[in-house]
Each structure stands twice: as C-alpha cells, then as structure tokens.
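Following up on my earlier thread - several people asked me to post the actual chain instead of describing it. Fair enough. Here it is, all 230 residues.
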Amino acid sequence: MRLNIEFLMILIFTHLMADYVFQTSKIAENKAKSFRGLVIHEIVVLLVSTIILSIYGLIGFLVAVIISISHFAIDYVKMKTSKFFRFQTVNYLIDQMLHFGVIILCEYLFRSVVNEPIFELKHVGFLDYVLIITFMATVIVKVVLADTNRFKPQNEGFFLKYERIFDCLIILVVVLTFFNTLVGIITLILGIVVFYVAEIKYFKYSKNQILLKTVLYLIIAIAFRFLVNY
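Reply from S.P.:
Thanks for posting it. Predicted structure:
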C-alpha cells in the first residue's frame, strides 16, 4: 500500500509538539539527569500524542501509546549513555533518528488500517516545517555550539533570555525570502542586519558564532523545505 502522507505528517507534527513545543528548558534539563524528570516529560508526550492522534479514533490512541512507550525507552537510553558521548550533537541526532524511525514504522504498520481523521488538519506539512526551522533548529544550533566549545550554558538556562524567541522570529522572516523573490531580497538584507546587530550587542556572540548559527539555520531551512508541499 502507498505511503499515507497525511498520517505521516500528523505523526511528525505530534512528535514536534510533544518533544519541542511542550518541552520547556526546565523539563529538558530535569529529564537529562533524573528518572523523575524523564517520567514528567513522558507524561507530557503521552498527553500531547493522545490529544492530537485522537482524530484517528481508537487506532490513533493505540499509536499514541506505542509512540509514548518507545519515546520513554529511547530517552531513558539517551539519559544513561550521554556520558559516553564526547559530542552531544551525535547523541542528540541518534536520539532524534530513533524517534523518527518509530514514526516511520508506525506509518508503515498502520497505514492500511487507519481511518479517515474525524476532522481534517490542513497544511500539516507546512506546520511541520515551521516547527522544525524554529523549535528544533534552535536546539540543534545550541548543541552544536556547545560541542565546538563556542558556547557555554549560562546560569539562566540553555537559551539566553529572549534568544530563542528572537532567533525564531528572524528565521521565519528570512524564510519568507523563499516564497517571494522581490520582497524577499529586502527582507533577507534587513533580517541579516538585525540578526547580526542583536547577536553581537545583546546576546554577546562572536562573529564566528554568529556565522555558525546562520549557516546551520539556513541548512535546516533549505533541507526541510520540501515539507511545505504536503
């Protein structure tokens, strides 16, 4: 049977919401070092997955349970093995590949039995794209900066104050250049200037750090642009 694109996009959306949007910096910090923190995160994953996938009825609930159990197992292994990784970027990428592997497996196993959703979620691929280039991309960038010794977490947390919100807004503005060439050129120039000035003056990043952040954001934005078509 052919790939169920809509089901796959919704599964990806579910993961992004549970593992990024509804995972605060505090939850992420606690789940990395304590079993209690991990359990709290997995409860959130179960609740978010159940709510979103409930549009598929009982099958959706079953998939939510499978995803939540596998998510707990993967995160538990990550917590126990993180000390063996010199570069946490590798650990993070393996973790996400396993999560997405489970998503692909669920799509394959249930594509032929999943019913039409109770109501249609439109433009899910576009929503997936927005979440990846903002919530997911900002985490990837900070993990890479930490591994390259270009960034050390501050006392106030993994992200500097307002840094994530600012980066997400700039990314969304710059990505508009992909969809309208005329307006895009002006937007791109203004976005780059504002990003550079704020990163230097307010967030205190060096020029090399800003360059690394910019390159990574652009790579992620370009690599996942295909999701807009779904």
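Residues 5-121 form one domain. That should answer part of your original question.
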